[in-house]
Amino acid sequence: MLTDLQDIIGRIKKGDHAAFRKIVEEYRQQAFSVAFRITCDEEEARDAVQESFIKIWEKLEQYDMNRNFSTWMLRIVVNSAIDRKRQMDRHHLISLDQSLRKFEIPDPDFIEREADNREMASLITWLAEGLPEKQQMVFILRDIQGLESDEVEQILNLSETKVKSNLYHARTTIRERLMRAIE
Predict the structure, then answer these.
(1) Taking CA 59 as the corner, what is the angle to CA 56 and CA 63, rounded to the nearest 5 degrees?
(2) Domain 105-183 has CATH 1.10.10.10
(3) What's this model's pTM, rounded to 2 decimal places?
(4) Domain-by-domain residue ranges, the chain?
C-alpha cells in the first residue's frame, strides 16, 4: 500500500503523470480482479479498468481526502464494469481481437492463467446466473472479492440494510442452486 497516498494524490491534482502511474501500478490488479469478476471476460475487464483509470484521472479533484481511496476507486471500477457487462449482454459479439487470438500460439503461463480465469468466470457466472444485478454485485464484492460490508455500501451506494438483504437473498439462491446440483 502506498504510504504517502495523500502526497501522491496532491501531486496528481497538480498534473504529475509519474505520481498517477504509481496509483495505477498499486491498484490495477485489484481493479482488474473486481472488473473481471463482474464481466467474466478478460478483455472487457481490461477495458473497464482502463476506462476507470481515465475517469479517476479526470475526477480526482472530486475525491474527498477524508474517504478511503480504494473504496472511491472501486466504485468507479464497478460502475465501468457494470456498463461493459450490460453492453456485452445486449450485443453478445465476439471482438476481432478475440477472433485473431485463436490463431496465435500463447506462452504456457498465459494458457494456465487464461484457463484459471475461464474457470473462475464459469463458476461466478453459474453461481450468480439469474440473480438481480444488485444481488450479483453485492455477492461478487462481498463474498468473492472479500470486501468489508461498509466498503460494499460505499461502492454501490446502498444502505447497510440493503447490502445485508441483497447478500442474504443472493446466498439463499446460490445455496439452493448448489443443493440441487449436489442432489
Answers:
(1) 90
(2) yes
(3) 0.74
(4) 1-93, 105-183
CATH class of 1-93: mainly alpha
Q: What is the DSSP string of 107-150?
A: -HHHHHHHHHHHHHHHHHHHHHTT--HHHHHHHIIIIIS---HH
Encode the chain (183 residues) as per-residue pLDDT tens digits: 566 888 998 899 888 999 999 999 999 999 999 999 899 889 999 999 999 999 999 999 898 888 899 999 999 999 999 999 888 877 654 444 554 444 455 555 655 666 666 776 677 777 777 899 999 999 989 988 889 999 999 999 999 999 999 999 999 998 888 788 777
What contacts 167, CB < 8 A, 6 or more positions away? 135, 138, 139, 142, 143
The whole-angstrom separation of Cα 110 and Cα 101 is 12
